[in-house]
Amino acid sequence: MENKTNDFTSGSIFVKLLKFMMPVLGALILQAMYGAVDILVVGWFGTTAGISGVSTGSVIVNLVTFTVTGLSMGITVLIGRYIGERRPERVGKVIGGAICFFAAAAVILAAVMLLFARPFAILMQAPQEALDLTVTYVRICGVGILFIIAYNLISSIFRGMGNSRLPLIFVAIACVTNIFGDLFFVAVLKMNVAGAALATVMAQAVSVVLSLVIIRRQELPFTMSRKDICFNREIKNFVRVGTPIAFQEILTQLSFLALCAFINRLGLDASSGYGVANKIVSFVMLVPGALMQSMSAFVAQNVGAGKEDRARKAMLTGMGIGASIGVVIMILAYFRGNLLSMIFTQDAAVIARSAEYLKGFAPEAIVTSVLFSFIGYYNGHSQTFFVMLQGIAQTFIVRLPMSYFMSMRPGASLTEIGLAAPCATVFGIVLNVVFYLYFTKREHIRDEKSL
After folding, report:
1. Are 91 and 222 in contact (CB under 8 A)?
2. For 82-111, what is each residue's pLDDT tens digit?
3. What count of other Cβ atoms lies within 10 Å of the Cβ of residue 63?
4. CA-CA 20 to 30 A from 256: which of 64, 388, 397, 432?
5. Could you tell me if residue 362 is left (phi over 0), alpha (psi between -120 and 50 degrees) or otherwise beta?
6. What's the CA gap between 164 and 26, in Å, rounded?
7. How far is residue 61's CA from residue 70's CA, in Å, rounded to a whole number?
8. Model pTM greater than 0.85?
9. How many H helices and E strands in the chain?
10. Would you state the pLDDT for residue 432?
11. How far is residue 154 from each of residues 43, 95, 146, 210, 380, measured CA to CA in Å?
């Protein structure tokens, strides 16, 4: 088993964390490219209304995708905990229960996206020119939601086992397929937004099918039988851990939905500019996102092995890695946002509005690395209820009120609206520091009582 999984409970924290994080980061880069290609190809070969349609539609689809990702984090943490405790026999039951649970979820989510695509688009205040395009994008992605969920489930399983390389391969397959699909459907067949959505679904389907073929050839560190594929008690365990994370993701994505709606009211140029900026933002957030996923698996193994000091050192190491890289990314986003935006469109007005938003958002590259290292640490401890609470506080106390206030001002600036994100994150860091002091004191008292 040792040669098939990464043992995070011994050796250099920096080396092992970085070694595990790099494939995770690579997978996230490809995922970001996967989403960015839709905007890029529609921007070059489609219409400005198409950019807005993909932008608004993808925010709605991301609400579903990131909720599933958050819920599947419970699987990653549970598998990591069982491996750290040297109980691989329970991993098969976790996976079997997850298959049943997420299959049922896929059917429900597909129905919701098909039936409520238009009400969602209207609620998002999609510009009239882009309303029908937004509905088309959401409905086509809804048909393929099963493949999106299957990819996230497979990736969460392997990250829990300490294998971040296979998820990288899976998303690489999807990314390459999506690029060819976008070029064929949008550039050649001139299908605009519908083509971008079809390419997305096709890419996920190909990725899932090929990933299953690859998995069958792997020697896995656990056993699993058909009897494990049922609604078992492990569902309750990973849902208990994953639900607060998923709920936090729902709130975060709802805040982005609200932000998108605020900006949509400012006109088509602002809506499309935000859509372009949002794709660049997805790249800015790659390092923090990789840190959080890696930290959750790293800490979970060490908690299972009873190595709390090593878990804390891993969190601090992650903060240092993320903040160092974040400085470079912040400078690029703040001073060269227009050059980044030119990759996606040639429309001067859209480029200007995109760069305007990125200026305010830029500090997020640094502060989110600190926040997400905290969150990964708490996820690894199954302290996901607090993670949810701090997410709620950030969203409703800072991010949404500030965004709304800035968008309602005469001559509203996208820079000021973009600044709401780093302000909310700084507030979240303060909450996490306070909880860290409480949590470590509580654990210390508990350890003393057990002696």
Report:
1. yes
2. 877 777 778 888 888 988 999 999 999 999
3. 19
4. 432
5. alpha
6. 9
7. 14
8. no
9. 18, 0
10. 96
11. 32, 9, 12, 12, 19
CA 421 to chain centre: 16
What is the amino acid identity at position 93?
K
Residue 373 near residue 290, CB atoms below 8 Å:
no
CB 177 within 8 Å of CB 206: yes
Sole residue written with tokens 């299957």: 150
Q: Nearest Cα to 186, choosing from 57, 52, 50, 46?
A: 46
- List the Cα angle 257/322/337 in 5-degree steps: 55
| Burial group, residue 218, by CB count within 10 angstroms (0-12, 13-18, 19+) | exposed
Q: Which of 203, 174, 196 is nearest to 41 (CA)?
A: 196
Which of 60-69, 172-181, 373-382, 424-433 is predicted with the least confidence, judged by mean pLDDT?
Answer: 60-69
Q: 306 and 450 in contact (C-beta within 8 Å)?
A: no
CB 366 within 8 A of CB 224: no
Q: Name the token pair of 409.
A: 């001002």
SS3 category, 410: coil
- Neighbouring C-beta atoms of residue 389, cutoff 10 Å: 15
- Token representation of residue 181: 């699909």
- Residue identified by tokens 């990131």 is 66
Alpha carbons 44 and 50: distance in angstroms, whole number: 10
Q: What does the pLDDT read at residue 44?
A: 84
- What residue type is 174 in one-letter code? A
* Distance separating alpha carbons of residues 203 and 150, to the nearest angstrom: 13
Q: Tokens 């007005």 — which residue?
A: 349
Using CA atoms, how far apart are residues 72 and 74, in angstroms rounded to an integer? 5
Which residues are within 8 A (CB) of 130 and not within 5 positions of it... i.e. 6 or more apart? 49, 50, 52, 53, 56, 268, 271
Instruction: Give the whole-angstrom CA distance, residue 46 versus residue 188.
Output: 11
CA-wise closest residue to 258 among 128, 428, 109, 63: 63
Closest of 65, 96, 63 to residue 79, by C-alpha: 96
Cα 128 to Cα 47, 114, 121, 125, distances in angstroms: 14, 20, 10, 8
Q: Which residue has the tokens 């040639």?
A: 346
Give the dihedral of Cα atoms 254, 256, 258, 263; nearest 10 deg.
Answer: -170
pLDDT of residue 443: 76
Q: Which residue has the tokens 């992650």?
A: 318
Structure tokens at 338: 């227009």
Cβ atoms within 10 Å, residue 29: 19
